[in-house]
Structure formats: C-alpha cells, structure tokens
Specification:
With 729 residues, this protein is an alpha+beta fold. It is 19% helix and 31% strand. The strands form seven sheets. It has a nine-stranded antiparallel β-sheet.
Length: 729
C-alpha cells in the first residue's frame, strides 16, 4: 500500500518508489509534518523536538507544558490564530470579525484511485493511485478543512488539495488559502523560481532562502508572464545531476502566491496557493471552497531527474484528449506572415505553399471576424467577415483542404472591444468598476467569465463558427491582464477565482463538444503557461518571442517542469520581428524542434534554397517527432552561464538520441567546446548517423563530443545517435 496509517501514534506514511512523506495527528489533535524526502522506513516522530521558547506561546490544551508550541513545531496545514506566527496556509475571518481557526484532527479515509476536483483541473490516474483524505475541524466555528493527498507511487508524485467547508451556523470569509505546505525542520535551501515579462518568460533565478519571507506570484488574473506557478526548493549543493530538491507546481491558471521563509530556529516553510490580494471568499452555511491542486515531487538525483518526474506526470496524467499522445500537426500561422492584412485568397495561397513544403496545417490568426482590421475593435463579435475573406468560411476551408492541408483558426473569447456590437449591447458584461473609467490594455476589456450568461453567449457564437467547416485546430488567446475588479452579479472577493472556474467550464464544454479539435492555449504567448491550462489545451504557445536565441533561454526555463509536447515553438522570418536579430534557418529550425514545431512567416517570400531547406527540416522533424514528444529530455548546458546551449532527447528504450547544440557566442581563436551527453546505456555502442562515428555510451557521456570551431554567428548542430551492435566498433 502506498498509504499506511499507524493507529496507535496516528502516523500517516505515504510511500512512493523513491520518496517518503510522513505526518502525525498528535495527542492534542494537531496534524504535524514529520518528513518528506528520500525513501526511508519506520516512524519519524523522533524528529520532533520540544523546548521552552520565549514568546512562542502554548495552546491551552498543553497545560503547564511550555515546551509545546505551534510557533515551533512543523505543521501540515498551518492556520492563523492558533499561536503560530509564521506564514499561514489558511486565514479565515469569522462572523464576529475574529481571525482564528484552530484545526484539529477529526477523521480520515484511504481510497483506491485519485481524487478529482469539481470544476478544477487535477492530476488523474487509475487504480494504481491512492487518495488520502484527512478531515480537520475547528471545534468552535465548525469550519472543516479536508486535506486531500493523491499518490501516484510509480511516478514519485504526490498531489495536494484542500476543501474548506463551512459546517457552522454563521457566514465566514476565507481570506487566504494554500493547497500545500512543506515544513523542513533543518537544512539550508535555495529557491529556484522562473520570472519574466511578455516576450521573455520563465528566466531561471536561484536565490537563498533566508530569514524573512520571499513572496512571488500573480495578481493579474492569469498565472502571468512575470512569474510561473512552479518552483523548486533545493539543497544548496544541488546540481543538474546530483542533490535533493523538491518541486511545487500549482495546477491553476489565475492568481497564485508562493511564500518561502526561514524562521527564528532556522526551519524552512514553503507555501503554494491562491493569491491573497483580490481574494475574500465568503462561505455561507454548508458552502465549500476548493483550493486548486499542487503537484509535489522529490528528487534525490538533482534537477534533471525532478524535471523528468514532472514531464511524465504532465504528459500522462494532466494532458487529456485525442491529441494527448498523437504527434501534433506541423503548421504555419498567418500572424507574422500578414498580421491583419489578409484575404481568403492569401490564406488559401499560404495553404498551397504549406502543402508544397510538406506542412500539415494552415492557421488563420486574428482579423477574420467582425470589424477587425486592427486591434482596436471587433472583439466579442464572433461572426465571419465574409467581405474580407471574399467567401464564406466553409468555402475557404474546402479550398484549403483540397490543397492537402488542415485548417485552424484563432479566437480570443474572454475579451471585448468597446467598439463592438457586443459591448454596445451589454456594457455591464465587461469587468469594470461603475463610476470609474476602466484601464485599457491593447485597447480591450475583459468579459466577466464569472457570469454564466456571459459565457453561454460567447460559447454559442464560437460554436457557430466551429461548425461552418472542417476546423481541426483552435488557438485560444488572451491578450491582457485583469484589472478594475468588479462584477455586476458576483461578490468582488470571488470574481478572480470564479473567473478562472468560468474559463475552465468554457474549455471543458468546448473539449466535450469538439473532442477531435486540437486547442492550443495562448496568452500573449506564455502568460498562461501552466499545468491548469494543459488539462484543457495539450500545447501552449510558449512565447510571442520567436527569436531563436531568446527562445533558447525561454525554453530552457520552461523545461524544468513542462514537457516538449506542450511547448508551441515555430520558425519565424529574419530579421526577427521582436528583436531584429538574424539567425540561420538551420539554427531557427534546431531551436523550434524542441517543441511542437511549426512556422510563423510568409512562405511566398522564401527563396528556392530556403524552401528546400524547410522541406528537409519538416522531413527530419517528422522522423524524430515521436522521440521529441515522448522521449526523455536532458539539459546539457546552462545557457545563462555557458557559451553554448545544448539539450538532447533520448528514447524510452535508450536506443536513439537527438542532440542539439547552438553556439551563443563567437570570438577570435575560439577554444573547443565539449558537450557531455546523458541518458545513454554506458555499455552500448552508438553510431553518429551522419558521420558514422561509433563510440560507447560511456564515452559519449563522460568524455563528450567536441563541437567544431567554425566562423558563423549562432551556429547550430544536430546530431543523431543510434544504438548499433557492439561488434561494429
């Protein structure tokens, strides 16, 4: 059994293949955290220490025992008001205005299978998983907190979620709620977080966790470009290939907050949950609030192994639908090819050019609907501008399919322009504060998706579009942050949370109605690149920045948690539209092949030589697509610290590998760069498919591959290895 309960001491032990998680409901009913880390056996309550600490108070139940304090003991779900002055996972305002919640163990149950969450995305699994449910209760207010633990033992994954239920007679207000807390009684840790901005997301930052609180998160209504809702807590000496580290991934696409602090006795607490600002959630009697799930993983073999755990979990237990394991179509998107300046015929020509080069799909981006020739009008009016296309949407799709390619379309359902028929008819459907002029961003406002009637109206419009022809792909975009938080029908403290639930409701219905459509998420690129969206959209446009050299760093940070199969990545034109940089087509293709792969340029402007090279790129990607989408991904360098960027994919049977290297700098009289590989079988022989050079896996991994010194800026190399018979060496 993955979950065991020792009744005498009330100790809960969760065992995965390589990790152990243990907690105890002690004699006073407090649920104390004992251990999370490398797999161990036995009871670990001996780790608890008790001393009389000044200014650390004692619960009344402890009597004269001054050594028992919630301010010093490691807790499983700390709440404000029980004598713990550290960061709290839960803050509740009671009907009398007090902020106190004294949670004690009430009951538990262990079940086969993985729990689900109503209205929220969550890791899913079959009978190989188990669920532990622990009920805590405040004896005065009758507030119940149900702690949920999902265990995937073979995957080394533990998930945590929380249900807060008002079982009392009076209304309460939840002011803060986390889904996971990790308390470490000793050790010195670093925090690895992933910061950024629009068009430069998920940059790695490693800082020491010291005294005082580090807080990061989003109050933008989305998980945001600025901070990703996924962090790593790592021991100081942890590297890519060695050391202990812990991941916390929030399965949510809205506001989040992560906190890390080292307390007065050098204990470390890490919390992941909902952002406290813009959140004040009232619960009447019998009502409940579900806190989104956090995925926990532990690695004793460094950061690379931790990434592998998350890649597999997200690919196999978060992503769903027809395209979960399907090789994705290679597409060309019209955005950087023509922006708003297109007709039905130019889209059809793009499709014919795509077919000639071997691509699978053409996508018509923004500008096909309503009054929409720029980004100042039309959002919310989801009807085809047939005058612009010169035909019906169905007729255009038939022409595109006849050319031999599939068709996809761009939508932005959550937004509305002030210059639109929808806004003129329903101005109260936009999120804005009465009596105040709203903040504009990209000259658009946000629809109140916390309201069902708003969602239903937009859903009906989108469905009418999707049923006009053979549409096989949808790019779902979201191009501004939320502000001016107010709703005509929803309590203001609930709007941000209920908005995200409304988004999920819309996406779930869309997936159920059109299960064969591939939906790619997008929020100005990577502004909502999170596991919550991946539950509904198995791939997400990684960044609006298509510059190959910037993408190396963006995709490097992304790789710490998210598999290549979720990473939308395209080859674009040069000079690049975001940076003005020029890089070789081979380099652009090499970088884009670390994701779902496609193109973002005007194919009609390509030279004959460029077209021939693109044909070869497409052939190579299709040959390696299974390896890239399902293989094990290894980071071979740190592009922030080294002159070269290098990564590789290894097949599950370790018989095939694809290595990519990009030289980020060029200098006079350059030294030779050696790249050491990973993930091969040491005693097996591998052949370089192009050069026919054969070496043992141990040589490739420990001695490395010398990269040629060649005079070209941003030079790229792709190396394919194939296992061969040992006697061939």
């Amino acid at each position: 059994m993955a979950i065991n309960f020792q009744e005498e001491k009330r100790i809960f032990t969760i065992q995965t293949t390589h990790s152990t998680y243990q907690m105890m409901a002690d004699k006073h009913g407090f649920l104390l955290h004992l251990y999370y880390g490398k797999r161990v056996e036995g009871e670990l309550d001996y780790l608890l220490t008790h001393y009389d600490r000044g200014f650390s108070g004692n619960p009344y139940d402890a009597g004269e025992d001054r050594t028992y304090s919630m301010d010093t003991l490691p807790q499983e779900y700390p709440s404000l008001g029980n004598g713990d002055y550290r960061n709290a996972a839960l803050v509740i305002c009671n009907h009398d205005g007090s902020r106190s919640c004294d949670l004690r163990y009430k009951s538990h149950r262990i079940e086969k299978g993985k729990y689900g969450l109503k209205g929220l995305p969550a890791v899913y699994a079959g009978e190989e998983a188990q669920t532990l449910e622990i009920v805590l209760e405040d004896s005065v207010t009758k507030v119940q907190v149900v702690l949920l633990y999902g265990v995937l033992p073979e995957e080394d994954i533990i998930t945590r979620s929380v249900k807060i239920i008002n079982q009392g007679e009076h209304k309460i207000v939840v002011e803060k709620a986390a889904s996971a807390c990790l308390d470490f009684v000793n050790g010195n840790y670093d925090l690895l977080s992933f910061y950024g901005r629009h068009a430069m997301e998920r940059n790695l930052q490693r800082t020491s966790i010291g005294h005082g609180t580090q807080v990061l998160g989003s109050r933008r209504g989305t998980s945001s470009h600025q901070y990703n809702p996924a962090v790593i807590v790592a021991e100081k000496d942890t590297t890519e290939d060695a050391g202990s580290c812990y991941g916390m991934v929030f399965v949510y696409s809205g506001n989040f907050q992560f906190e890390a602090e080292q307390d007065q006795f050098n204990q470390t607490r890490a919390l992941m949950g909902l952002q406290r600002e813009y959140f004040s959630y009232p619960l009447e009697q019998k009502e409940e609030l579900i806190v989104p799930e956090t995925i926990l993983a532990y690695s004793g073999e460094g950061l690379g192994h931790l990434s592998h755990l998350y890649h597999r979990c997200i690919r196999e237990h978060v992503c769903r639908g027809a395209y979960k394991n399907q090789i994705r179509p290679i597409l060309v998107n019209s955005w950087e090819a023509s922006y708003f300046d297109f007709t039905g015929e130019t889209i059809c020509k793009l499709a014919r050019d795509a077919a000639e080069l071997g691509m699978d799909m053409v996508v018509m981006d923004d500008g096909w609907f309503g009054k929409r020739d720029d980004d100042n009008s039309g959002l919310g009016d989801w009807y085809v501008n047939e005058r612009k296309l010169g035909c019906t949407l169905g007729e255009m799709i038939e022409k595109i399919n006849a050319a031999g390619v599939k068709f996809g379309i761009w939508i932005e359902p959550e937004m509305v322009s002030e210059d639109s028929d929808l806004y003129r008819a329903h101005p109260d459907w936009a999120i804005k504060i009465p009596g105040r002029k709203p903040n504009r961003s990209r000259n658009q406002l946000v629809l109140d998706f916390s309201r069902e009637e708003v969602r239903e109206h937009i859903f009906e419009q989108i469905c009418k579009i999707l049923e006009q022809g053979n549409i096989e792909y949808v790019k779902w975009d979201m191009n501004r942050s939320l502000s001016d938080i107010y709703s005509a029908t929803t309590d203001c403290g609930k709007v941000m949370y209920d908005y995200v639930l409304g988004l999920y409701d819309f996406l779930e219905k869309l997936n159920q109605r059109y299960p064969q459509i591939l939906i790619e998420g997008c929020s100005g690129g990577g502004g909502r690149f999170d596991a919550g969206m991946m539950y509904y959209t198995p791939q997400i446009w990684c960044s609006d920045n298509t510059d190959a050299m910037d993408r190396i760093r963006i995709q490097y940070g992304t790789s710490f948690f998210y598999p290549a199969s979720t990473v939308g990545s395209h080859v674009s034109a040069v000079p690049n539209h975001q940076t003005g940089r020029k890089t070789a087509l081979f380099t652009r293709g090499t970088v884009a092949m670390a994701g779902t792969f496609g193109y973002e340029l005007d194919l009609g402007k390509l030279s004959r030589e460029e077209k021939e090279e693109i044909k070869l790129q497409i052939q190579e990607y299709k040959k390696n697509a299974e390896l890239i989408q399902k293989g094990t991904y290894y980071r071979l360098s740190n592009p922030y610290q080294e002159e070269q960027a290098a990564w590789m994919f290894v097949s599950e049977n370790q018989e095939q590998a694809l290595i990519s290297v990009v030289m980020q700098e060029i200098h006079g009289n350059m030294p030779v760069t050696y790249v050491k590989l990973k993930g091969l079988k040491p005693d097996a022989v591998y052949e370089n498919v192009e050069s026919k050079e054969k070496r043992f896996g141990s040589a490739w991994m420990n001695a490395g591959i010398p990269i040629p010194v060649e005079m070209e800026e941003y030079r790229a190399y792709r190396i394919e290895l194939q296992e061969c018979r040992r006697e061939n060496i």
